[in-house]
Write a structure and sequence with these properties.
It is a single chain. By secondary structure, the protein is α/β, with parallel strands linked by helices. It has a single domain, classed as Nucleotidyltransferase, domain 5 (2-Layer Sandwich), CATH 3.30.420.10. The protein is 38% helix and 13% strand. The chain has nine helices and seven strands. The strands form two sheets. Strands 3-2-1-4-5 form a five-stranded mixed beta sheet, sandwiched between helices. Strands 6-7 form a two-stranded antiparallel sheet. α5 links the parallel β4 and β5. The N and C termini lie far apart (37 Å). The N terminus is likely disordered.
């Protein structure tokens, strides 16, 4: 994985989709960005600074019309492959939504999470058949995902399995999960940092409607809703939205 994939810092690469990010948290990435990482809760000004940075990050993603990406996979380990890939842009346009047939049967535990079965994958294209399409639509673009380290890692290792490049064509990667943790501001004494929220929890906290099963496109739409809500500054956990508004102008509706 190239260095450019790590710039958001403190994203957890092994969190299974649909699970509590904190329940399986482990050692964070070494090159942290603005995220709070001390064992003491930051002072008020520092909390505000982090929240403002998260709001600005969300606005920047929308301004450049970043691509929102989500995957469903065969598992969590180094042999996991993509079995579903969805990509939308910040206008909500669906650019790619496809099942992907892996090189081996999907494990039962993975099928139980996503609802994707071997029978559903029988007629699906392989990664070799969709790789060029994905590379073309993502060339020169910034990708944003909720738990970006997991999605980018599985994309990279799926590409390697077929001896195909996966992400060297992109401009960069952003992690909506880390941005939302800084924005929401729920401190974890155990972790000594702001708590990562499940995507479903973030959507609920921000009033983002979630429809449909836990699938790649549904999660893309939920992630975009959370990003838009952060950009509009619709309230943020322990931190005052009014305080953010004194630092950053309100995003026009």
């Amino acid at each position: 994985m190239s260095a450019r994939l790590d710039h958001d810092g403190f994203v957890q690469a092994l969190i299974p989709k649909g699970s509590d990010p904190e329940a399986l948290a482990s050692k964070p990435a070494p090159n942290a960005g603005p995220a709070a990482t001390s064992h003491q809760r930051p002072a008020g000004d520092a909390v505000l600074e982090l929240a403002c940075a998260a709001v600005q990050r969300a606005r920047d993603w929308i301004a450049i019309n970043a691509l929102i990406l989500d995957t469903e996979t065969t598992g969590l380990g180094e042999d996991a492959e993509v079995v579903e890939l969805a990509v939308i842009d910040c206008t909500g346009a669906v650019l790619l939504d496809t099942l992907v047939r892996p090189s081996a049967p999907i494990p039962a535990e993975a099928a139980a999470i996503s609802g994707i079965t071997d029978a559903m994958l029988e007629g699906a294209p392989t990664w070799t058949q969709i790789a060029d399409t994905f590379r073309a639509l993502s060339a020169g673009r910034t990708l944003v995902a909720y738990n970006a380290a997991f999605d980018t890692r599985v994309l990279e290792q799926t590409g390697r399995r077929y001896a195909l490049p996966a992400l060297d064509q992109i401009a960069g990667v952003g992690c909506a999960m880390q941005a939302y943790a800084d924005f929401y501001g729920e401190w974890s004494e155990e972790r000594g940092r702001f708590r990562w929220q499940k995507l479903s929890a973030a959507a609920r906290q921000m009033g983002v409607p979630v429809e449909g099963a836990h699938r790649a496109l549904t999660d893309c739409i939920s992630t975009l809703g959370v990003i838009r809500s952060m950009a509009d500054d619709r309230g943020a956990g322990d931190m005052s939205s009014a305080a953010v508004a004194t630092v950053l102008p309100v995003s026009p509706s």
